[in-house]
Amino acid sequence: MIRPQWVCLHCLSRARTATASRLALARPALAQNIIRRQSHTSARVDGDEDFFLAGSLLKRAKQLATEHDVLEGQLMEDFDTKTAARAGHLRPVSEALKEYEAAVENLKELRVLASDPESDLSAMAADDIPPTIDQIRTSSAALTASLVPRHQFAAFPCTIEIRPGTGGSEATLFANDLYKMYTSLLSNLRWQSSVISYQTHNEIGGEGCSEAIISVSTPESYDLLRHEAGVHRVQRIPATENKGRTHTSTASVMVLPKLGDEEGDFEHGTDDDPLAQIDMKDVKTDVMRASGAGGQHVNRTESAVRMTHIPTGIVVAIQDSRSQHKNRSSALTILKAKVAEKRRKEKEEEALSMRRGVVKVGAGRSDKIRTYNFTQNRVTDHRSGQSNHDLPRLMGGDGLIEMIEGVREWDKQRSVEVMLALQEMEDSKKNNKK
Amino acid sequence: MPRISRRITNHLLKKNQLLPLLYRDNRISELAESDLRILKSHILQHASLKNSPTRQFKYLKSLCERRARAEPLEHIIGTAQFYDVEILSGRGALIPRTETESMVMRLCDDLKNYHFVNKKRRRNLGNSFRVLDLCTGSGPIALLMAKQLYELDLPYGFRILGVDVSESALKLATRSLEYNIKKGILPKEARRDVGFRQGDVLNPEPSIYGDGEDRGLNHLGKSEVHDEIKSFFVNECQVDYGPMVDIVIANPPYISANGYWEDTERSVRLYEPEIALVPPEKRPDNIADDVLREDIFYPAIEEFATYFKSKAIIFETGGDKQSSRVKAMLESRGWETGTWKDYRGIHRNVVGWRKETGWNWLLLPSKDGMSYD
């Protein structure tokens, strides 16, 4: 398990206010400043400075910025689409790093000025230090954000599906509680949503829900809500229990991106279809022909064509026309359509397997991502390690967003760590080779 | 002709009783089957035979017998399918080959994907795009290029002139043009945009306008062929500013005298004119002695390309060795050159372009799968 080493629990529970998180959704750049101030990084550059970036992150950022500069240099000489695309991806990193370095440099100079008691400027410099520190915080937050690769479906709207897990009728009661929690969260966020399916039945002690599906049509909603996917565990004395024992039950939440909306207006399998694009290097063409010198020497009708798309193994044989080239181009058209069809099917299967992969079938109580402990009035997220001690308010949708934001930060940090580990692995490989 | 073994005949008879007939010339069972399929679909187009299977079969059998005597399929059917266009076939001209089709399609695809991609190039300095097809025969290159260029919808249009020495081939070419217009494959404007003229590329006859003295592109009088080409293109462009022709394309006779007896198929020798296959024995005065007989058309055509300041020149050749000879000849005359392979993997085409035109896209692989290298 990866330890969320940087989280300062004290800070998180004390200072994360609802205002900060609302801002985070409305104006991320501004809000990161506020949030960043409250989270302490464990790996510090400077002993007493909590706002500098971790050394490993800085190293990675510098590498990427250097790569960006090299690519830009190449582009000046010769334009190439691939290089341009890569450079475009790296541009935010390079810009954020420049900003960060400028701010750090600034701070150093100001400190030198401020520590000189004889200078007239020392007072002014001392005044300027706090805003500069703020600037460093902003830019380092931006830098970290730019380093983390975005989730491939981050820009999409999503659907939330809630189903009861282990625990029988108590689980259906909890599923209903979760449904209410998410609807109030969505209305708090003012995100457009609609209930696709909500099936309830009466249980002892309240209304149970056997399935609830909410569709959220706000773009980018998947980026935030994907952290909610998983098994939610509840520990309480159910209304159905008559001996006062605490039960543990679960409900599973699935969050899936709503794909497919992005497909443009084109007929499937035509040249405009992005899935129908194939590299001619992958296509093997066989023509049924006699051996010989060809050209003017031979006048046999050799028109039958067979084309194979090697990566997918799709074969198309055409002999409709007497013109070999006519057959060739119709074979290619059909091949493209078939490849597109196969790719589309694979994409759908991928989406389906993603759906299955979100929650393991029969997920037990131990695979939970979050525990709602009613007896202790506590909600704990097992990934970020955050706890909230006002359960009723959280179930009403308040304070949930802070928890999700915490998980997002944890996720971001984890992806940065993975990124760094991969980088180190590559580096050590290179060294070994040398 | 070696006789067909009993085993193969039995094997073919199991599939169709007419296949042994078609096997006689093809010698590959798949090709024989493909011939049979084509002939069958040809039979179905005859409305008069529609209601009588017996007569249909009799007719089909008679066609198969003709094919068994090595008559080319295109002669039996009457037309050759040359990509989009149909070319009438007859004894007077060479049947258009798949390799030629590839050459034209690759050129047109490259023009579409690399050359006419921006507006300035599409305008072509306000001139129509001019193509000169020498040794055109029954005109397949000219007609297919016309069909492809109409699809590009150039702002100033295009003009294509096909030149051949053979009267009978030119008759076929003109009839093919009308045939395609009648079938709606080519628009009516093709009568204006595509022309066919008679003329000898190797030994141009003297002009009726002068004594053979050359007074530049704007004046008639160099030779009869030059006059024909000039009068076809001249009212379309301002030659003072640039070339009179944009592309010279040619599939000249390129088979050597020995090769004609050794490498060509019986069907070719029996049913296609030798004049379209083997260059004449009498060598023109302006061709150097060290040029092989099968190569003599290439320098002669190159002279036309240079005279009309063509931007590019595209040849079909007999194979790897001839391609390298033609390439060397073009290079020695200041062209940038390259070769294209055909579907057999043989270097079938030599392309040349003037350096200042920047037409090196001619060597880029085709985008729509029309190239083989």
UniProtKB/TrEMBL annotation, chain A:
GO annotation, cellular component aspect: mitochondrion
Domain of life: Eukaryota
Molecular function as annotated in GO: translation release factor activity
SMART domains in the record: PCRF
Chain coiled-coil ranges: none
A Pfam family annotated for this UniProt entry: RF-1
Keyword tags: Methylation, Protein biosynthesis
PROSITE patterns recorded: RF_PROK_I
Every Prokaryotic-type class I peptide chain release factors domain range: 289-305
Cited PANTHER family: LD18447P
Name of the protein described by the UniProt record: Prokaryotic-type class I peptide chain release factors domain-containing protein
From TrEMBL, chain B:
SUPFAM superfamilies from the UniProt entry: S-adenosyl-L-methionine-dependent methyltransferases
GO biological process, one term: methylation
Coiled coil regions in record: none
GO cellular component labels: mitochondrion
Residue ranges crossing the lipid bilayer per the database entry: none
Molecular function as annotated in GO: methyltransferase activity; nucleic acid binding
Superkingdom of the organism of origin: Eukaryota
CDD domains: AdoMet_MTases (cd02440)
Protein's name according to its UniProt entry: Methyltransferase domain-containing protein
Species of provenance: Arthrobotrys flagrans (Nematode-trapping fungus)
